[in-house]
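ENTRY TYPE: paired fold submission
RECORD: A
CONTENT: sequence, then structure tokens
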Amino acid sequence: MDQQMETLDGFATSYFNYDFRTAAKFCTPESEKWLRYEASQMKKSDVERLVAKKYGASYVVNSIEKQSDSLSIATLEVYDYYINATIDSMGHEESKITFMIPMCYQDKQWLVTLKRPLRPRRVQR
């Protein structure tokens, strides 16, 4: 496994299972504020539902598209992902959902770079 895939695996495994502290290890320092934001949006009911899940989220890498020598975007299919509650809705689990994860090569390593909270890509059906 190359370093970019190791970073993507570490990030995806922790992020999609709401382990934001571990996910931060695979991100640029500027991305950490968005992980703190995501953590702050968790409600007690979200935490209770995550604890009650029998198994965590999993994922498959569909592609990694190189944008330049130092930028790429990974497309992942995430399975059994819990989407936390919003002000006007309850949290729920998605059996399959697509995410696009931006990455950059910085300080001789690939890192996830978040410019805003990570949101699923909506697919036209």
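RECORD: B
CONTENT: sequence, then structure tokens
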Amino acid sequence: MIWLNLTLVIVMVIGFIWSVFGWKRRSILHLFFGGLFILTPIFYFLGWMVVLPLVPGIALFISYFATGKLKRA
């Protein structure tokens, strides 16, 4: 169990690095995968396994919102 937690923390760090890289270069793909890699371990650690199928949609929304592709009212 400790190895799973350690692996998920490493995945979160990689996701954060990818997100920062995607934000600097305005790359939606890097932001999307970075968001996936950050959100999935967070929901696992919180015990919200029911929310895991929604992670790709949430990550896609975050990536579009962060790059400014959405029109704000």
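NOTES ON RECORD B: The helical segments are 2-25, 28-46, 55-67. The chain has a mean pLDDT of 83.
STATUS: closed
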